[in-house]
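S.,

Sequence below, as promised.
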Amino acid sequence: MENISIIIFGFFIIITSLLLSLVILIQNPKKESIYQSFMEKNFRFFGIKRTNTFLENITWSLSIIIFFLILFFNFLLKSKH
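The prediction came back faster than expected:
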């Protein structure tokens, strides 16, 4: 049972880290990379200020989620031994 929960927590940590990386790449407003093409296609209905606030809130939320997932993962590993 503990092995399954360790695998699930590890999977969630990886998925959340990938999502956080994607959000950070989208947030780069100074260069014309992923940010501008993503803004043109998906966030036309938001204003620029609201989109930046939205992306910043997602970044903080994902960071906090990763922090707690790693803490629980660490407790699971220590309780196994």
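DSSP finds three helices and no strands in the chain.

Coffee later?
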